[in-house]
Write a structure and sequence with these properties.
Belongs to the type IB topoisomerase family. Residues 325-702 form the DNA topoisomerase I eukaryotic-type domain. Residues 14-25, 34-83, 94-159 have a biased composition (Basic and acidic residues). This protein is an alpha+beta fold and 730 residues long. Strands 10-9-11-12 form a 4-stranded mixed β-sheet, with no helix packed on it. The protein has a 3-stranded antiparallel β-sheet with strand order 1-5-6. It has 27 helices and 15 strands. A hairpin with a 2-residue loop joins β5 and β6 (311-314). It is globular, with a radius of gyration of 30 Å. The two termini are 15 Å apart. It binds a DNA duplex (22 and 22 nucleotides) through β12, α16, α19, α22 and α24.
DNA sequence: GTCCATACTTAGCATCCCAGTG
DNA sequence: CACTGGGATGCTAAGTATGGAC
């Protein structure tokens, strides 16, 4: 069962190819809410009858059996045969369940034991949530410092120098259990975007062939457009329309009357000017570059850190987003709109009362200063495109993010313990008398098996038309009673998060198939597939099945368990370091495929692949030469039988070995890169894979963790690197 | 249940930067 | 030593989830 997610279909290879075509397809659906209502009314009585019919068709096929024959298609295709590293692709053969699902004393390896949770950290969270009143103190020695801000600050500053050597192991300390996120918080506030600098007078803008001097407000917005001139989207109707509308808002009455047609605007001189500027920046002297670097470092030291509970912690995004033109992902109805400049009076500052409050720039005021220690953000503002709130928060290496991340994986491990029960349950629910329960059960099956996202409803016309599981519409799936020799095949084709296409053909169990047919009956293509379901209903149900369980936990769980399983299967002891790392990447890749983490093939892909191939060819030739030389040396040595020729044999043998190794290295590199062409590994590595699995794997095979995690990643996963031992089991 | 606000995680792409190469 | 490919980092959009008002 552990590997079933791997199997999910033939999604990848054709997926991106169709991206463009797919975009053209119109999603004309509208009025979903109404549709949902309508559906309900329509099917109200029918459900019960249906149930009778359906309840006969079931067979008692075991979930487990179902998944025995699975293997990864996408990787199959891509594995290179010529090089010596065609270790089998991550074909998933079924393993005895036991290997995975009973976990022998998993927790024992954790060094620290937070008093309150011997069992798991998941429970720790529970405690936190339930006993809101019982304030647990963090480490006692911290307490006094927290209260006096002066001291906290000085302490913090001392830490600046100290901390690099002795890293704070927050994971060895207790956590808050009272729902507060911190006791003391001090920071310097955000860094605002540089003010607009009007263009030099020689850079002309013209309208309808005539020069025209814009006042700075309008000119600034024009420069935003000019800077994007090379992008395809400046040619899109919606983009242009939105842009012009917002641009005109910044114009004087006079400008407004004149400038009515975007097609008559000439942004080219502006665009050229900015290109020249960026060239100039690139060509700058070393000194100049160093100056800039130093200034950046100064800003980072000043604004890039805060003091939270006695520790100096890195802030993730201390710079306020500069104004510009909004470009959403995919077919976004708001593309081209003006993203306003954020001013101090838009800013809410959050810090502790007893801290030194950040100062707004001279002559300005913050919108508000509050002291809310139930949240983790330092600064917030409301963005003008969607009206959503943006935050400045801490870096992933910080305690506050790290604890949460750790807890996320503990929840996923919790799911591991009861996933069998939950699977049995939803399979049972496929037969339910109630439509809403059947829908819930089928949706959950998709979320589990295919690692789909939950699929919250979205406001129509505000964002690109994308969906997740609960928001799938009839038009997003096709049912094939029989397809390519397989029975009950479901074809998924929809745009998910970031308008990334999800395309997959999956055989499902008969009952699921029949249910889908039922759900689709008498519906229009733009009706919701699961009209009786939404994410909050689903999550409420999940919450009852397991504490802390939500739809996304399945993604985390399935991703991590897949990595662990794949690593076990793909890593072979005899292989060298490089090959092991390739195996790791392949395991990682299996997860990325499961989670549909795609990327556009790098622009330079073909070229760089060619270069690499050329290198490989050259190395092959070199190897041939080296071997020939070795041979002749050997022959020579046989005849001469003296020390000198023996030595020469040795040297040449070494040369051959060295060359062989270099060749292998190149070939591995080529394989890895080819397989990675349109797959992004970073997202799963950073967000879905319990780092302790990777750390344990590194320890087991004595692979330096640096080969797997770069510096930033090591900082983020410091807790895992510190605590996971070789025998860690997810 | 629905709607809305809020907070926080997850996501891909653009740009930066630096190590390795010729 | 200059160049450059590609990984690291920055950026910010787009998700998930929850809780409270009605």
């Amino acid at each position: 069962m552990s590997g079933d997610q791997i199997d999910c279909g033939s999604r990848f290879n054709d997926s991106l190819k169709h991206k463009e075509k797919y975009k053209e397809k119109e999603h004309k659906h509208k009025d979903h809410k109404k549709d949902k209502e309508r559906e309900k009314a329509k099917h109200g009585n029918r459900d019960k009858e249906k149930e009778k019919m359906k309840s006969k068709d079931g067979s008692a096929d075991k979930y487990k059996d179902k998944h025995k024959e699975k293997k990864t298609k996408p990787l199959d295709v891509k594995v290179k045969k010529e090089n010596g590293f065609a270790s089998p692709p991550p074909a998933v053969k079924s393993e005895p369940e036991d290997t995975f699902f009973h976990s022998p004393k998993l927790e024992k390896s954790l060094k620290r034991e937070r008093d309150d949770d011997n069992d798991s950290d998941f429970k720790a969270k529970k405690v936190k949530l339930e006993n809101d009143k019982k304030v647990k103190k963090r480490k006692p020695e911290e307490e006094p410092k927290k209260t006096k801000n002066k001291r906290a600050v000085t302490d913090g500053k001392k830490k600046v120098k100290k901390e690099p050597e002795e890293k704070w192991k927050w994971w060895e300390e207790e956590r808050y259990t009272d729902g507060s996120k911190w006791k003391f918080l001090e920071h310097k506030g955000p860094v605002f975007a540089a003010p607009y600098e009007p263009l030099p007078s020689h850079v002309k803008f013209s309208y309808d062939g005539k020069h025209m001097k814009l006042r700075p407000e309008a000119e600034e917005v024009a420069t935003f457009f000019a800077k994007m001139l090379d992008h395809e989207y400046t040619t899109k109707d919606i983009f242009r329309k939105n842009f012009l509308k917002d641009w005109r808002k910044e114009m004087s009455a006079e400008e407004k009357t004149k400038l009515t047609d975007l097609n008559k605007c000439d942004f080219v001189p502006m665009s050229e000017y900015f290109k020249a500027q960026s060239e100039a920046r690139k060509a700058m002297s070393k000194d100049g570059k160093l100056k800039i670097k130093e200034e950046n470092e100064r800003l980072l030291q000043l604004y890039g850190f805060c003091i939270m509970d006695n520790h100096r912690e890195r802030i993730a995004n201390f710079r306020i987003e500069p104004p510009g033109l909004f470009r959403g992902r995919g077919d976004h109805p708001k593309m081209g709109m003006l993203k306003r400049r954020i001013r101090p009076k838009d800013i809410i500052v959050n810090c502790s009362k007893d801290s030194k409050h950040p100062e707004p720039p001279p002559g300005t005021k913050w919108k508000e200063v509050r002291h809310d220690n139930k949240v983790t953000w330092l600064v917030s503002w409301t963005e003008n495109i969607q009206g959503s709130i943006k935050y400045i928060m801490l870096n992933p290496s910080s305690r506050i993010k790290g604890e949460k991340d750790w807890q996320k994986y503990e929840t996923a491990r919790q799911l591991k313990k009861c996933v069998d029960r939950i699977r049995t349950q939803y399979r049972e629910d496929w037969k339910s008398k109630e439509m809403r329960i059947r829908q819930r059960a089928v949706a959950l099956y998709f979320i589990d098996k295919l690692a789909l996202r939950a699929g919250n409803e979205k406001e129509e016309g505000e964002t690109a038309d994308t969906v997740g599981c609960c928001s799938l519409r009839v038009e997003h799936i096709k049912l094939y009673p029989e397809n390519d020799g397989q029975e009950f095949v479901v074809e998924f084709d929809f745009l998910g998060k970031d308008s990334i296409r999800y395309y997959n053909k999956v055989p499902v169990e008969k009952r699921v198939f029949k249910n889908l047919q039922l759900f689709m009956e008498n519906k229009e293509t733009d009706d919701d597939l699961f009209d009786r379901l939404n994410t909050s209903v689903l999550n409420k149900h999940l919450q009852e099945l397991m504490d802390g369980l939500t739809a996304k936990v399945f993604r985390t769980y399935n991703a991590s368990i897949t990595l662990q399983q794949q690593l076990k299967q793909l890593t072979s002891a005899e292989e060298n370091l490089l090959a092991k790392i390739l195996s790791y990447n392949r395991a990682n890749r299996a997860v990325a495929i499961l989670c549909n983490h795609q990327r556009a093939p790098p622009k330079t892909f073909e070229k760089s692949m060619q270069n690499l191939q050329a290198k490989i060819d050259a190395k092959r030739d070199q190897l041939v030469d080296a071997k020939r030389e070795l041979k002749s040396s050997k022959a020579d040595a046989k005849v001469r039988r003296d020390e000198k020729s023996k030595k020469s044999v040795e040297t040449r043998k070494k040369a051959v070995e060295r060359t062989e190794e270099q060749l292998m290295k190149l070939e591995v590199q080529a394989t890895d890169r080819e397989e990675n062409k349109q797959i992004a590994l970073g997202t799963s590595k950073l967000n879905y894979l319990d780092p302790r699995i990777s750390v344990a794997w590194c320890k087991k095979w004595t692979i330096p963790v640096e080969k797997i995690y770069n510096k930033t990643q090591r900082e983020k996963f410091a807790w895992a690197i510190d605590m996971a031992e070789e025998d860690f089991e997810f």
